[in-house]
Queue: 3 jobs
Job 1
Amino acid sequence: MNHITPHIPEINDTIRMRCSEELPFCGFPWFLPVKFLIKKNWYLPAPAVSPKSPLEFNLVSKHVSEWGTVKLSFEAKGPSHMSLYVLPHTGSSLTGWSFADGTPQYDLSGEYFIFYSHGMDAGPWTFWIEVQPSSERLDEDSMVSIAISAHYLFGDDQRTPELNLFLRKFPDWAFATSWVSTYHMYLY
């Protein structure tokens, strides 16, 4: 940062962001599950983005089994790269999902992460999760938080005019990797 700041003084306007533990993956649109590796997050304020092809995320169905688990089925339409974060609420647990062998695997922070990528002209991404709600809380809207980040690595939505102006300020010897990401969170 010390080497770049003389070329891009607005880096001094960055804001230190702390992890919000009640949000899946701290509320950040991370590309990979690196929450336990990142010690500092700095954000430069910028206008909100409005991708031409925004993420579409829908709950397709909800089924309560006879033993009390809740199966939530989803459909996502978005860019070629998306990150899904699942955070069961206190007392609830993730008992199954449609990924791999069906056994949920969490990361070192106790959260669940799925990275999804596809090629051109892929249909909607469909998947399900199964949650055992807390027996102490009858409010079904407090079982799980789900967040999905859309990563626009290619095409018209990859950069905003503001991001392009910012990138042009980097010196020739620097290589900046950049793209637009959005973060969407839902409670079920």
Job 2
Amino acid sequence: MGRAFVYVILGGGVAAGYAALEFVRRGISNGKLCIISEESVAPYERPALSKGFLLPEDPARLPSFHTCVGVNEERLTPEWYREHGIELVLGTKVKSADVRRKTLLTATGETISYKILIIATGARPLKLEEFGVMGSDAENICYLRNLADASRLVDVMRSCTEGNAVVVGGGYIGMECTAALVKNRIKVTWVFPGKHCMERVFTPKIAAFYEEYYKKMGVHFIKGTVVTSFENDSGGKVTAVILKDGRRLPADMAVVGIGIRANSSLFEGQLKMEKGGIKVNGRMQTSNSSVFAVGDVAAFPIKLFGNDVRRLEHVDSARKTARHAVAAIMAPCKTGDLDYLPFFYSRVFTLSWQFYGDNVGEVVHFGDFSTGGFGAYWIDKGRMMGAFLESGSKEEYEAIAKAVKLKATVKDMAKLEGEGLEFAFKVSEQTMPESLEWLTTYGWHASAGVAVALSIAAFAYWCERWREV
């Protein structure tokens, strides 16, 4: 027994919601699309879990953060899916997939077939048990990836007010959960193996600013070591965290964020893999022409990086790759390769930062690190490859994004440091690139044919710029 659909989205996270909205906007017929999710709720904005759901006052709750409110689009409630004839198969685990036969087998024994499959299975958090950490199965050791994790974390926090928490891991989850714990009046010790927090994005100077801010909020840092075991009481709750350097930290709870792994195991041996995920082309199409992959599970070529294949673990990538995949499915002749600008952001306490591009090359810091109005540029071979800004305005973030997108030329690093944001605004206000400006300035003395060629080149340039916008 089974059901058949034209399109099936496997996974019910952020990407599934944005793909569904794109399908509807492109005129999909009722009954053609199915979304299969292990979660019991319709797709929602995962960033809300760490940024709003954990707050002690006026916390975010469904249905307020169903997709696609993260970019001020429609809120796709369960009723919305019913109204548009989209089948939500919730609380359902798929135990096997056969891409040759175009079928999925659920844990209940049902076979669901498709003509086109979009894999949006996301990623799972790495668990300390996988590294042999003794006692890491305690009931008050929390992870954060989905709504169930967030609900459990809230319950544990409520029982630990004024208590001690140990946060393990120096990345996104560590940074945002530490802030949430502090707001819930819990004393936090933040432990990670690196020299500073957010090593994948922050420079030491940037990290120092945030760490100093967190210290003023009462957070204690322990760097350069890892957790080796937990001490648990007879009720199965953690009471202390033991570190590799021998320190023992009393704890009423712990939060762990040590990385994630793409959920790609169903397709091992059936689809090509790369960078820990499912390899796709610029149209998000896998090695099987009937299967697409989006979001955290997809490894796709980045034009900005010379088509180097990357797997980007962030909500912005999930949203945009999902929409692009649907565009490629519904309008293949009108859809080219995705030209994606890598984008990461976070909000903690009263702080808010955005990062665009890649943190490769020489770093130039600018602004006032004492007040929080600061940023950084990454310059490689005379070109801007990345940009970071704390506490920027909408216009300022747009300016640094455009400077990275255009790989702005940088000739004087000292001047760049002095100009700071002014440099990005100058780039964004340019009417044409240097090469075209030179040609149009001096080329009119050439033949009429050259002048026509210059006009065509200028027109093509602006068509491309408008397409990017």
Job 3
Amino acid sequence: MRAVNIRSGNGDDAYFDRLFSYFQSQFQGGIRKFGPIRGDVFLIKTKKQNYILKGYSNHRKLKLQEAFTATLRKEGFKKTYRFLESPSKEELYFEGTHYGCLEYLSANKSAFSFHTHSNRQEGLDLIEQFHDTTKSFEKRYRTLLPKGDILAKWTERYHLFLNNLPVLRYFIKEPFVSEMVSWAYWSLSGMEQQQTFYHNEADVILHGDVAHHNFLRDKTGKLHIIDFDLINIGPPIFDYLQYANRILPFIDWSYDNLLTYTQMKKYKREPAFLYALAYPADIFREWNRIIREKSYSDETKLKQVIELSIGQFSDRKNFVEQLKDLLE
């Protein structure tokens, strides 16, 4: 049975009717359910097996993902999905999109989130296991993956945010905007001064997007890490900084609380780490996205990003001041 209310940014109902017909021709055992998860990711249930189908813009990206997950498993890291051969044993290709056939992992009733200390630590432990595995084969992927450069990435995001200020000021007033800009400027200046530290750690393959939705707890309780679209090569601190930015709102923007996590303790007094923690990566990312997509007319999205920017403003400001005191 086909799932109802199928929608995506890729097209209208006619597109999905064609897509569904194509998948029917490839899954000859009969599709019992077909529905979107997000974007070009779909769930297909057949009588024999369930699959996740994920679309890629070109053949190379698909093959890179297949090779990477296969290497992970070969090197002993099993806490993720496998790519499977399609039932038709042919490559799945539809209207410019290449589809990979992924193992379906049944989700636990208790979804992973950053709301509990145990979950947050478990996520960090899994990232560390992922790094420990990928450092053994990152040399084989150096010609295939980009080199991570968090300073360049965040500098670009900062300048884009500055360019978006004329629009953004319709939604956020002073002194909030100037404070955010000042945090970013101070952070980037310090990171530039301390950037040699980012070259001292041995390179690993970084996940690149350690948001809560890229962790999946299966029905047995085992935690998996998924979605490797943004993998790149660099020092582990880059993933840990992104993770810290994600969990700080859940630990009261407290540096002491952050240091209760095993993987963060080794950076306790490291200036490169302290400066980077002050960068408002989440605020800049979400505002730049809303303005790029012109989705500021979406009241739900707008409310969320305003809450992110203003609702936590005082706590975040105190956190930045604490970082400055530690660096004096």
